[in-house]
From TrEMBL:
Protein name (Swiss-Prot/TrEMBL): Uncharacterized protein
Organism: Sediminicoccus rosea
């Protein structure tokens, strides 16, 4: 799921109820929200291990995210820094992804309506 704020994180974790999920940043969020900013949304919920931070075409942000403990980081694959950063990620027990995985954008889910919860539950393939 693409999360944009603390409310999205809390809602996703509540609906998932302990099931494994991925919390993806918006495209390129490492550049405008920052590594520390996205971590600040996740850390109070203990959700950093679920994170995927999108660094777009910014290898410096990808490196900072890996050093900050993000388990998965998205970086444009055509960059010269991609291969060395992918190797570094493996050494850190993380993964550098060439594309973001398919995700439901929670900006389009109305948490105030029962349909919002049902839509998210369907996405997570929950009963």
């Amino acid at each position: 799921m693409i999360v944009h704020g603390a409310r999205d994180v809390a809602f996703a974790l509540e609906v998932a109820a302990g099931r494994p999920i991925a919390l993806l940043s918006a495209p390129g969020a490492a550049g405008y929200l920052g590594v520390a900013g996205f971590a600040a949304l996740l850390t109070p919920h203990g959700a950093l291990p679920l994170a995927i931070l999108d660094a777009a075409a910014a290898p410096g942000h990808a490196l900072a995210a890996l050093r900050a403990g993000f388990p998965r980081v998205v970086l444009a694959p055509g960059l010269p820094a991609f291969a060395p950063l992918a190797e570094l990620a493996l050494g850190l027990g993380a993964a550098l992804l060439p594309v973001a995985p398919p995700a439901l954008d929670l900006a389009r889910v109305d948490f105030g309506k029962p349909q919002g919860r049902m839509h998210l539950a369907r996405w997570l393939d929950l009963p």
